[in-house]
């Protein structure tokens, strides 16, 4: 065995040297070509291509590949070693095989989909299905041009049993820094299926905490760009994430995968960029204060304004409202540019309702008014004298202006206010009453009270953008080739249906976890609410049940919270990576800060790169942060106000920890004084516990919530 390993090691070392020599030579040749700085367009394009290649080769020269797959295609019989890297490198001069295959290439899919066994393996190539035998699957770690580690996860000719997950477990056991990383070398088969799914589908993915949803979505974008080069461009792809700090946290994956220019945004920022007018939203912290900080949080129901505003029923109502406005758009009068000349309302109506009916309302108004102007100009030409023409022109211009002012103004916010019976009603009140009647009275009352004070919330944005879209011509440059929605359980059906208007071919990747649906006041409760928005043949659903982030002990502990507290039938399957038991540590209110400081210091002694203290509320995080820093500890507060993610050692309320991960986590106040015995708080705690990679400690008072097991390790941390 040792001998086999030694010879494999020598073989790979030799291969690495050969590859590096070739990559260096190719790079060298390119660097010899002087950089073109002239104005010839063809030359500029060629130079851009060379520059791209220089960058790619420079990357390859550090770490050319991470895997090897030996495959013999049916018919050819020849076993070919394929080296798989983050970027492909062309053929060497002595060998006609590509030197390194891009991980996104069809043949590289074998590296991910093949999980062992004697049977034939297959992959979809542009020429059709290719079948053959896999002989070897090897993970290769190269750092800064040095061969560091080899791990065979399959060897057809070996008699030794191979532990498939050994390399994965090694990778998962590493400590994390402050940014999410790529996983190209260890993508798992169930993740690969999502990454390589066809473009024009609305994919809905339910993935347990830590199943790699965010990571997979980013890899999928890189794949789509490679596979559909002719149809998609990076600038026309977007990933929506919950907040700017999270966007910062995930910001390095795409550049690591060699992909730039993909838009990354929150829904609110995108929506505001579409609406021309400056809309000031009330801060998210105020919404969080209402839903997470108060002990008397209200129950969520279909009459909760945010849920109503996110429903497809409301979307239809917005449409009906705009259609009703159309009926009363044309002023109830003829137009007379000067005494004696009349353009009848019937004629104007005919232009509006027939000739220009295909234009959206605001455009139609523009067209009709421009047509009236042309009508006036034609009449002016027939004036009997120049003096009369001038006089008429002056009069006409005043009357056109005043007639134009009689038309309603189509400004989304003003109209949205009218939709809730607020502000100046420009449509026919009798007709609009049919819309107001469809809004439950308490919602109409509370929303209109807010709108009167110009208090606009995130949840108002889908309707505002929809009104804008219905009023104006869709700007083609705003269309996306593909949209990723991360943490989609917090999006409403209205959000997604609206985005669908902006996406070619319903090309979506929608990922989330219902068990982490802590924003129940606005999100979905079942994925059908999303998938039913698309034709059945256009959607696909993938569950991800394996969790890669945390140790087995942490996942098993978190599963109990789900089973007892959330009861939605979704639990996570751990990768076999064992760590320390979860610790339950009792702590009374009087000694709390000192005890937390002590435990936190014990964790720091273990040299973790990222740790977090997760409190139940922001107020507690702020108070504890003050006490800990006063005691001289170096820990920073995450309060939702910052756009950058610092990593390191943090204290934050549990609801702001969603999407993030830390080597070790202390969750404080896990008792019935802070976590209620309901599924909402069980989800909150589930989110908190599943942030931990290697260690999880829970501090609690007297009474544990029903969904927390006391069976975890009771021993005090030493
Ligand atoms: N195939 C894999 N190989 C190595 N690491 C992986 C793999 N899949 C996921 N991971 C790691 O698991 C962790 C969780 O990934 P990610 O944050 O993408 O999951 P998620 O499903 O979005 O999590 P959550 O919903 O809990 O926020 C990350 O550290 C990621 O690098």
TrEMBL record:
Q: Which residues form the UvrD-like helicase ATP-binding domain?
A: 186-551
Q: Which residues bind ATP?
A: 207-214
Question: Which GO terms label this protein's molecular function in UniProt?
Answer: 3'-5' DNA helicase activity; ATP binding; ATP hydrolysis activity; DNA binding
Pfam families given for it? UvrD-helicase (PF00580), UvrD_C_2 (PF13538)
Entry superkingdom: Bacteria
**Which keywords label this protein?**
ATP-binding, Helicase, Hydrolase, Nucleotide-binding
The entry's cellular-component GO terms read: cytosol
InterPro entries the UniProt entry points to: DExx_box_DNA_helicase_dom_sf, DNA_helicase_UvrD/REP, P-loop_NTPase, UvrD-like_ATP-bd, UvrD-like_helicase_C
Q: Which GO terms describe its biological process?
A: recombinational repair
Instruction: Output this protein's name.
Output: DNA helicase UvrD
């Amino acid at each position: 065995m040792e001998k086999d390993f030694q010879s494999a090691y020598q073989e790979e070392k030799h291969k690495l040297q050969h590859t590096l020599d070739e990559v260096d030579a190719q790079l060298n040749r390119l660097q010899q070509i002087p950089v073109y700085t002239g104005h010839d367009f063809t030359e500029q394009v060629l130079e851009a291509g060379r520059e791209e290649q220089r960058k790619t080769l420079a990357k390859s020269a550090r770490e050319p590949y991470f895997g090897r797959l030996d495959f013999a295609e049916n018919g050819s019989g020849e076993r070919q070693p394929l080296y798989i890297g983050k970027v492909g490198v062309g053929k060497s001069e002595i060998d006609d095989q590509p030197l390194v295959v891009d991980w996104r290439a069809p043949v590289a899919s074998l590296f991910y989909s093949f999980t062992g066994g004697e049977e034939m393996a297959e992959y979809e190539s542009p020429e059709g299905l290719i079948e053959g035998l896999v002989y070897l699957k090897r993970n290769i770690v190269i750092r800064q041009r040095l061969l560091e580690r080899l791990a065979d996860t399959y060897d057809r000719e070996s008699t030794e049993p191979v532990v498939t997950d050994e390399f994965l477990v090694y990778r998962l056991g590493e400590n994390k820094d402050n940014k999410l990383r790529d996983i190209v070398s260890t993508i798992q088969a169930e993740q690969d299926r999502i990454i390589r799914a066809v473009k024009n589908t609305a994919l809905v993915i339910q993935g347990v905490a830590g199943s790699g949803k965010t990571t997979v979505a980013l890899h999928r974008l890189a794949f789509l760009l490679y596979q559909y080069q002719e149809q998609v461009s990076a600038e026309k792809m977007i990933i929506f994430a919950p907040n700017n700090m999270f966007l910062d946290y995930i910001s390095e994956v795409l550049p690591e995968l060699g992909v730039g220019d993909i838009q990354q945004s929150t829904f609110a920022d995108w929506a505001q960029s579409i609406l021309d007018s400056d809309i000031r939203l009330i801060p998210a912290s105020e919404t969080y204060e209402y839903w997470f900080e108060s002990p008397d949080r209200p129950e969520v129901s279909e009459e909760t304004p945010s849920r109503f505003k996110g429903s497809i029923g409301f979307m239809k109502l917005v449409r009906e409202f705009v259609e009703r406005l159309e009926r009363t758009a044309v002023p109830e009068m003829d137009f007379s540019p000067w005494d004696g000349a009349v353009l009848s309302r019937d004629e104007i109506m005919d232009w509006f309702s027939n000739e220009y009916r295909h234009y959206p309302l605001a455009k139609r108004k523009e067209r009709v008014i421009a047509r009236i102007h042309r009508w006036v100009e034609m009449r002016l030409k027939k004036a009997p004298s120049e003096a009369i023409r001038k006089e008429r022109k002056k009069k006409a211009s005043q009357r056109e202006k005043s007639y134009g002012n009689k038309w309603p103004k189509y400004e989304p916010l003003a109209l949205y206010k009218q939709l809730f019976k607020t502000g100046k009603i420009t449509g026919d009140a009798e007709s609009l009453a049919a819309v107001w009647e469809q809004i439950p009275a308490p919602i109409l009352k509370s929303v209109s009270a807010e709108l009167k004070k110009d208090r606009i919330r995130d949840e108002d944005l889908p309707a505002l953008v929809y009104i804008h879209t219905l009023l104006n011509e869709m700007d083609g440059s705003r269309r996306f080739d593909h949209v990723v929605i991360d943490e989609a359980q917090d999006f409403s059906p209205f959000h997604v249906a609206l985005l669908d208007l902006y996406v070619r071919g319903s090309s979506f990747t929608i990922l989330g976890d219902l068990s982490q649906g802590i924003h129940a006041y606005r999100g979905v409760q079942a994925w059908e609410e999303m998938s039913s928005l698309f034709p059945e043949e256009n959607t696909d659903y993938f569950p991800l049940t394996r969790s890669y982030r945390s140790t087995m002990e942490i996942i098993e502990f978190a599963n109990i919270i789900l089973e007892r507290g959330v009861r939605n039938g979704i639990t996570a399957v751990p990768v076999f990576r064992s760590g320390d038991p979860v610790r339950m540590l009792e702590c009374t209110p009087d000694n709390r800060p000192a005890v937390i400081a002590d435990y936190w210091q014990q964790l720091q002694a273990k040299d973790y790169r990222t740790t977090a203290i997760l409190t139940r509320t922001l107020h507690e995080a702020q108070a504890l942060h003050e006490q800990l820093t006063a005691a001289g500890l170096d820990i920073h507060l995450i309060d939702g106000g910052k756009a950058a993610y610092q990593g390191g050692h943090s204290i934050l309320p549990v609801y702001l920890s969603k999407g993030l991960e830390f080597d070790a986590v202390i969750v404080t106040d896990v008792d019935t004084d802070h976590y209620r015995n309901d599924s909402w708080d069980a989800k909150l705690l589930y989110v908190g516990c599943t942030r931990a990679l290697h260690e999880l400690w829970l501090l609690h008072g007297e009474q544990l919530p029903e969904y927390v097991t006391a069976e975890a390790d009771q021993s005090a941390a030493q």
